C-alpha cells in the first residue's frame, strides 16, 4: 500500500471531447483532444493489466456474474414499480442465457480490475494509477471496458457529459485497448455493457440523486436497447487510427 498523488478522473477531464473540428474539441490537457488521448491511454493501461500473468485470482464465473443481475432487477422493482421491475427482469433473463456461455472460442479469462470506472483512476503527470483492485478476478475482458463506458453513459444521462463526448471517449478507449494488444469481441462487449447499465439502474436512488426515477428508467431502457438492437454495434466501431 502506498499514497499516490494525482487527480481523479471527474467529468471535467472529458469536457469538450467530441466537439469541434475532427470531433476532438480543444487542445488543452484535460478536455478536448487531451481527453481523447487520455482515453486511449486508459485503454492501453487496461490492456496492460489484462495481459499480466494470471495471478492466484478467483475465477469470475459467468454464472455468478449473471446472478448479480437478478439483484439489480429486484432493486428496480423496489424503487420504481412492478412494471419496471418486469422490464428489468426480462433483460436479466435474456442476458443470463448469453453471458453464461462459458466456452466462447474468441476470448479467454484475463486478470480483471473488477470495478473499472473513471473514479478508479488517478492522473499524475504522465502516469495513470489504477485504484481499488479489491474486486480483481479472472474473467471476461469485455466486462472492464463495458463497466467504464456504462459509467460514462450514466454521466451523460445526468447532464454531466454530452453524447458526443461519450461516443468519442468510447471509441478512443477501445482503440487504445486494441492497439495495445487487447482482444475485444464486439458481441461480448455489447452484452456486458447492457449488463453493466442494468447493474447501475438502482444506484441513483441509493445515492439520492434528485432525478433518480428518470435516471433509473433511462438506464433500464438503454440496457434494453443494447440487448435487442443490433444497431447498437455502431457505438463500438474502432476508428482506423486506433487499429494496430
Brief characterization of the structure:
With 244 residues, the chain is mostly helical. It is 51% helix and 7% strand. The strands form two sheets. The chain has a three-stranded antiparallel beta sheet, with helices on one face. Strands 2-5 form a two-stranded antiparallel ribbon.
Give a verbal description of the structure.
The chain is mainly alpha-helical. It has one domain (7-242): Aminoglycoside phosphotransferase (APH), C-terminal lobe (Aminoglycoside 3'-phosphotransferase, Chain: A, domain 2), CATH 3.90.1200. The chain is 51% helix and 7% strand. The protein is built from eight helices and five strands. It has helices at residues 32-50, 62-79, 82-99, 141-157, 163-179, 186-200, 203-206, 212-228; strands at residues 7-8, 110-112, 121-124, 127-130, 137-139. It has a three-stranded antiparallel beta sheet, covered by helices on one side. Strands 2-5 form a two-stranded antiparallel sheet. A hairpin with a 2-residue loop joins strand 3 (121-124) and strand 4 (127-130). Helix 2 (62-79) packs antiparallel against helix 3. The longest helix is centred in the first third of the chain and has 19 residues, at 32-50. It is globular and about 50 Å long.
Biggest sheet character: 3 strands, antiparallel
Q: What number of domains?
A: 1
Category from helices, strands and their pairing: mainly alpha
CATH level-3 fold name: Aminoglycoside 3'-phosphotransferase, Chain: A, domain 2
Cα Rg: 17 Å
Let me know the CATH homologous superfamily.
Aminoglycoside phosphotransferase (APH), C-terminal lobe
In total, the number of strands is 5
Low-confidence stretches: 22-29, 231-244
Q: What distance separates the N and C termini?
A: 35 Å
Shape: globular
Strand content: 5-15%
Count of alpha/pi helices: 8
Strand order of the largest sheet: 1-3-4
Mean pLDDT, all residues: 83
H/E element sequence = EHHHEEEEHHHHH
Helix content: 40-55%
Amino acid at each position: 500500500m502506498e499514497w499516490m498523488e494525482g487527480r481523479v478522473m471527474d467529468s471535467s477531464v472529458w469536457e469538450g471531447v467530441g466537439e469541434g473540428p475532427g470531433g476532438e474539441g480543444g487542445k488543452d490537457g484535460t478536455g478536448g483532444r487531451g481527453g481523447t488521448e487520455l482515453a486511449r491511454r486508459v485503454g492501453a493501461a487496461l490492456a496492460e493489466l489484462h495481459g499480466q500473468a494470471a495471478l492466484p485470482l478467483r475465477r469470475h464465473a459467468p454464472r455468478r456474474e449473471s446472478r448479480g443481475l437478478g439483484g439489480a432487477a429486484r432493486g428496480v422493482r423496489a424503487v420504481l414499480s412492478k412494471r419496471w421491475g418486469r422490464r428489468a427482469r426480462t433483460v436479466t433473463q435474456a442476458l443470463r442465457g448469453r453471458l453464461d456461455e462459458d466456452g466462447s472460442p474468441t476470448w479467454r479469462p484475463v486478470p480483471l480490475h473488477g470495478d473499472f470506472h473513471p473514479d478508479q483512476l488517478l492522473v499524475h503527470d504522465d502516469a495513470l494509477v489504477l485504484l481499488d483492485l479489491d474486486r480483481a478476478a479472472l474473467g471476461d475482458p469485455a466486462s472492464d471496458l463495458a463497466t467504464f463506458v456504462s459509467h460514462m453513459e450514466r454521466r451523460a444521462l445526468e447532464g454531466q457529459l454530452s453524447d458526443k463526448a461519450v461516443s468519442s471517449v468510447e471509441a478512443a478507449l477501445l482503440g487504445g485497448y486494441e492497439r495495445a494488444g487487447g482482444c475485444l469481441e464486439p458481441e461480448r462487449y455489447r452484452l456486458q455493457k447492457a449488463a453493466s447499465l442494468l447493474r447501475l439502474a438502482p444506484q441513483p436512488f441509493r445515492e439520492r440523486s434528485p432525478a433518480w426515477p428518470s435516471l433509473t428508467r433511462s438506464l433500464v431502457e438503454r440496457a434494453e436497447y443494447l440487448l435487442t438492437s443490433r444497431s447498437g454495434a455502431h457505438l463500438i466501431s474502432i476508428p482506423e487510427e486506433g487499429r494496430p
